[in-house]
C-alpha cells in the first residue's frame, strides 16, 4: 500500500493537517515539529506528489505548454522539441513539471488555456508562437494569468517574452550573400501572420534596399513550415526566374527548396535555412543554416515565467538570444 500523509502523521505523532503545513513550509510550524515530520517522511520513504503540494501550497509546480501543431506535425519540426527540452531543463532545475497540449488552430489553443487555468492544473503558461492580434495573449492578459511567449509579441512592454533579433539575423544573412556576389535572392517564408516571418521578411527587404537591389515579387513566396510546401514554393519561383540564392525562414522549407533545385538540374543556387536542425548537416548538399539556439530560448522562457510565478523582483521582461550562421556546402 502507498504511504499517505496519515501514515506520516502517525509516525511523527502529529495531525495530518500539521504534515500538510510542513510540506507547505508554513512559517507557523516550529522547527522541532518540522524535523519530526521530515524524519518520519524519510523513514517511510514518503514523497509528496504534485496534488498534495497543490492542496497545501495552492501551487501545482507545473508549467503548461501550448503547442501550435497537431501531434503528427510536432515531430516533423525539431524547433518545438528543442524548445521543450530547454524548458524542461530549467523547469526540472527549479522543481517544476511540464504539461503540454496539441492544437489544430488558435481557437483550440485558447480553449486549452482556459481549461488549464480554470482547473488550476498549472501555475503558468508558455506559448511557442506570437501572432498578429494573438488571441491567446489577449486572453491570458485579460484573466491576468502568468505566461511567457517564445517569439516577439506585438506589445513588448507588458508581456514576458524571449526571442532572437530576427530582423538582424535575416538582414545579416542576405548581406552575407550579397557580399559573396549574389544579387537575385529569393525569399520563402512561413505564414505572414506569424511575427517571426514578418521580422525576417523585413530584414530581407532592408538588406536588399541597403545595397540598391530592387525587390522582385516573383522571388517571394509564403508557405507552411514543411518540406513539401518548401518544394512547391521553390518550384513556382524557378518557373518564373532562376535566382542566385534563396533564403528561407525554416530548415524544413529549405530542405524542400534544395530538392526542387536538384530536380531542375539548374546551376548552383545558394540556399540558407533557419533553426540549424540536426538534419541540416545531412542534406545533399549540406545546408547552411542560422542557429537560433532554440534550447536556449526555451530555457530563458522557463526562467522568466518561474521568476514571475515565484514573485521574484526583476526588471527584466524579455531576453534576446544571439544567433549564429553555420555555413555549409549549400552556400559555398
Report on this model:
The protein has 332 residues and is an alpha/beta fold. The protein has 3 domains: 5-57, lambda repressor-like DNA-binding domains (434 Repressor (Amino-terminal Domain), Orthogonal Bundle), CATH 1.10.260.40; 62-164 and 295-322, 3-Layer(aba) Sandwich (Rossmann fold); 166-291, Response regulator (Rossmann fold), CATH 3.40.50.2300. Helices cover 46% and strands 15% of the residues. It contains 13 helices and 12 strands. The protein has helices at 5-12, 16-23, 31-44, 50-57, 71-74, 78-93, 106-118, 135-143, 166-179, 195-210, 227-240, 251-264, 294-309, and strands at 62-67, 97-102, 124-127, 147-150, 160-163, 185-189, 220-222, 245-248, 270-274, 288-291, 318-320, 324-326. Helix 1 (5-12) packs across helix 2. The model has no long low-confidence stretch (mean pLDDT 90).
Distance between the termini: 65 Å
- Main-sheet strand order equals 2-1-3-4-5-11
Q: What is the fold-level CATH name, i.e. the topology of the largest domain?
A: Rossmann fold
Task: Please identify the structural class as seen in this structure.
Answer: alpha/beta
Number of domains: 3
Task: Estimate what percentage of residues fall within beta strands.
Answer: 15-25%
Which CATH class of the largest domain applies here? Alpha Beta
Low-confidence parts lasting 5 or more residues at pLDDT below 50?
none
Element order: H for helix, E for strand = HHHHEHHEHEHEEHEHEHEHEEHEE
CATH superfamily of the largest domain: Response regulator
Largest sheet: 6 strands, parallel
Q: How many beta-strand elements?
A: 12
Pfam family, one: Peripla_BP_3
Organism: Caldisalinibacter kiritimatiensis
Keywords: DNA-binding, Transcription, Transcription regulation
InterPro entries: HTH_LacI, LacI/GalR-like_sensor, Lambda_DNA-bd_dom_sf, Peripla_BP_I
